[in-house]
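Shipment paperwork, digital attachment
Item: protein structure file
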Amino acid sequence: MFTTSIQQLVAALLWWLYPVKKLGFETERFAVRLSLIFETVESVQKLQVNPIKNITETVSNLFIQILDHAETTPLVSLEIAETKSPPVWQWIYPVLLMIGCLII
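Attachment content:
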């Protein structure tokens, strides 16, 4: 998440979700929402720094902090470029990972 921009992440998700789009699923909305969630996870994790004392109070306070964070985050417009499929040599990585998992 630190090296990939949100535009690149949305474009990659759109490429991977292309077969689902044929079934009528709104891939654009899903890809943007998922990317925004990934982008926000780190900032939300920083909100909860106190050890858990009273779980109910902690969860309610965290929920309030998340809502405040969501309301104060500035709006950003995204331009997503159409992407082509990755180069053939990049398909070697998932194959190697699967082989490595099978060996272990």
